[in-house]
Amino acid sequence: MSKASLHVLKNGLRVVLVPCEAESVAFGLFVASGSRHERAAEAGVSHLIEHMLFKGTPSRTQLDITHAIEGRGGNFNAFTSEESTCYYAHLPSEYLAEAVEILSDMYLNASIAADEFAKEKQVVIEEIKMYADDPDAVAAENLQRAMFPENTLGAPVAGSPKSLAPMTPAMLRRYIKTHYLPQNTIAVMAGSFDESAALELANLYLGPRRTRRNAPGFEPVDFAVPPAKEVKAAKDVVQTQLAVGYRTFGIRDGRKYAATVMDAVLGRGMSSRLFQEVRERKGLSYDISSRMQFFADAGMFTVTAGLDGAKLDLAMKTIDREFERIRSKRVSADELRRTKEFLVGNFRISHEKVTSKMFYYGSTMLSFGRLVEPAEQIDGICGVTAAGVRAVAQAILAEGNRSISLVVPRK
Length: 411
Known about the structure:
Layout: E1 5-8, E2 14-19, E3 24-31, H1 45-52, E4 56-57, E5 60-61, H2 62-70, E6 75-80, E7 85-92, H3 96-109, H4 114-132, H5 135-147, H6 161-164, H7 169-179, E8 185-191, H8 195-206, E9 230-235, E10 240-248, H9 256-267, H10 273-281, E11 285-294, E12 299-307, H11 312-328, H12 333-350, H13 354-368, H14 374-382, H15 386-396, E13 402-409
Parallel strand pairs: 2-8, 9-13
Antiparallel strand pairs: 1-2, 3-7, 3-8, 4-5, 6-7, 10-12, 10-13, 11-12
Helix pairs in contact: 1-7, 3-8, 9-15, 10-11, 11-15, 12-14
């Protein structure tokens, strides 16, 4: 595992350097601004900004940016989530300077030209429609809205055609001015590079340009507001798509490691309990899996499956039986050992990639405000006990805490 170092520029922007043996380098800019930070009239603006930053700057066209990265054998992309937006590039190691210069130019100087804006807004609307045709995506989006009914954490990250329609380039520029601030941004470089030269690049392209001010926060989840019990959507599909969700605590809660192990026992991989019971023994679904996701102040544990609607009741009974088993009985020593080895091994293998290192340090810096070395995460998983898994299962898998989302055939 590589040893990372943290550096803070004079304007407050934090830079994480993760040197390691590799043929390439990954550079990412992580901004602590996502759909949770938006007001109702701004729904989807963070995601739209993500798209527009690739459309050019005063010194570069969209094609210039693409040629500069892809023309050197690299790739670049971005994503927006509930709490952050990330822009990144992955190139051969000798092109780190180009990656830092180009992404910094996009981050600081995006043109947001009116003609490009009009076209890209329509592209995002088509993206929203595309996911509306995907039953998995519809079930997941409806489930999150049901789990967090009065909080922006339940709002779609991309917004809606209705919320995007009145947006203007000026609105995006105002949002960038108040959210894309140095102290709200993490820069991460991972791969093969000289550390002092890399820090000079960060200072050169991301150093003092803007004054310090506080970025807007978001409304915390009010756990006193109950989740919706069930939501259902009818689509032109053959299968019924099932999504079951439970609200949890946030990422800073010490029980997150036990919750992660519980998730893996129940639904991570083909040896998990749900996969074995629902698919292998009863043949109710081609694929069933679970996911534990943490945010700053809350989280969610979800189980998803596609199945014949006539078998839905049996599938739910089977899932509930496994929930009750992990709540009432301790995981055996052998299953606990295998699960922890699965999680640790998966984590270590993923860290062989420079892009994985970049994402890890960027996301953990945003979540904790400090460097979190991989060893800390591994020790946290290794320290989980059977009693800890049972206790966290009892805390999370409570009937009153559950939401169910279904996408069913229209007929």
